[in-house]
Amino acid sequence: MKSKKYLSVYHDIKSKIICGEFKAGEKLPSKRIMADRSGCSVITVEKAYNMLADEGYIEPKERSGYFVCKLDIFNAGGGTENERAIKYLEEKNTASKNIDFEYSVWFKTIRKVIAENGEKLFLKSPNKGCETLRNAIAGYLLRYRGMLAQPERIIIGSGAEQLYEIVVRVLGRDKIYGIEDPSYKQIEAVYRVEGAQIEKLKMGTDGIKSSALKNSSIDVLHVTPFKSYPTGVTTSALKRYEYLKWAGGTRYIVEDDFNSEFFSPGQPIESLYSMGGGKSVIYINTFSKSLSPSMRMGYMILPEELNELYDKKLGQFSCSVPVLDQYILAEFIRSGNFERHLNRMRRKIT
Q: What b/e sequence results for 251-264 when a residue is b if at least 16 CB atoms lie within 10 Å of its CB, and e otherwise?
């Protein structure tokens, strides 16, 4: 504690200067007098004075002592001392009552990843995300969804909203983006913030009405084929083929597959991405529903022809998802825990 005494002296004098007890131009007590008042050594006071001088609170004058500097900057913001005090926020419990998650398995995964990967976790993530997570997602999609997606075309992002932004930045703001009406409000919000023009296409009982799609002037179609929010509509195979026919190999569909892991018993509904052979469809999914709303991770699968365009436009930017989080999720998927979790959840809701 004695080695920190000079800090106590420093803070005491500093606060007296700020509140005006020691006024601008006033000479401070000599080091010996201040040492007697503070119950410390002269060397301790000297160290505190030197810190105050270095920071511009006081000014040493040869053979005269130390004088308080004029510090109008402290009043520049106005307000009283109480008004400048920190007003801490109340910590609210925002946990969803619907979260049903085996935390012990997740924490066990965290410990395993830290123990086995060490300094790898402190390396910078590749632009599209860590290879270990992209490989794990590709393997999971093939096993659980029957989707063949090459890891080189998988891009990791921090949730759906960032992935929507990437869509606009890759395809361009000059395109007209068609969205379902009604649709998840953040889709429209992100597109508008990104400066893209949107056109709303009226929903029917089996997805977007054929007449609305046919008569539109859109270049890109953003759809949620499985349990679209807020209508709850799941499109038929016929409607999905209609979407693919509209694309025709020259236009793009953004398949927003949120919530698709919770399909009814049996085989999962085939994705537009799979039906189109990985062409013309940009596939997006996240882990917010399948794991937790706090899991700000998602992924996008690009058609092969957009891979080079992505690298050209966005290849210089860093992945926004922490490496540790990517490795943990990769291990959770690779170990089979993710699929066991999904199967358990499906049994509960069906």
A: ebbbbbbbbbbbbe
Secondary structure class of 34 (helix, strand, coil): helix
Position 223 scores a pLDDT of 96
First to last CA, the chain: 63
Sign of torsion, CA 214 215 219 224?
negative
Whole-angstrom distance, CA of residue 204 vs CA of residue 208: 6
State the Cα–Cα distance between residues 330 and 238, nearest whole angstrom: 35
Residue with tokens 């039906």: 275
- Number of neighbours of residue 144 by Cβ within 10 angstroms: 15
Q: How many CB atoms lie within 10 A of CB 191?
A: 21
Helices and strands (H, E) in the chain, number of each type: 13, 10
The per-residue pLDDT for range 147-177, each reduced to its tens digit, is 999 999 999 999 999 999 999 999 999 999 9
Please report how the helices 42-54 and 31-38 are oriented relative to each other, as an axis angle in degrees rounded to 10. Answer: 110
Tell me the domains of the chain and their CATH numbers. Answer: 2-75 (1.10.10.10), 103-349 (3.40.640.10)
DSSP string, 179-235: EEES--HHHHHHHHHTT-EEEEEEEEBTEE-HHHHHT---SEEEE--SS-TTT----
